[in-house]
Design goal:
mainly alpha; 8 helices; Ferric reductase-like transmembrane domain-containing protein; membrane; transmembrane helix
Amino acid sequence: MTSEALWALGRGTGVTALVFLTIAQTLGIATRSGRRVATLPRFAVADVHRFAALAGTGLVAAHLVLLFFDPYAQLRLVDFAVPFLAAYRPVWLGLGTLACDILVVVTVSALLRHRLGPRAFRAVHWMAYALWPFALVHALGAGTDALRVWFLALAGGCAVIVAGALTWRLRADFVEYADTRTEAHR
């Protein structure tokens, strides 16, 4: 495979991973709400969330492998685990490394969910709120398509979707907070 093909596939898997992680983030918020999303029952929302998260994780893995073998990116194994050491755009790649490190922790916690218990799982899963913005900023800073209109529109759309879901989650009438409100008014 040529270096141009590696670079194109590496970029493509990164952009597609951002879309899947946006879906996973948004549906993860929706799953906690206890409400139906569109016409999907809650269990279906959870299943789509899980699928999008796994697909996003697989695409991130492909993104890393493809760019590792690309001579232009000049990535070393240490760059996948330790942030801000890369020779190429160290700050932007470091944010990607942070996102990847968090993704590994969140994924492992999801796979061990039944062994961790709901409290520990939820505590670790809250890290996804840091993962997504790190991934977005990484894409905007390290991506060679970052200044193209199509990518800015895609990234902006992802940001609006996650911001909308987060705003919805922070509302006082969010279902998860119903018990807290009821206890506070007693």
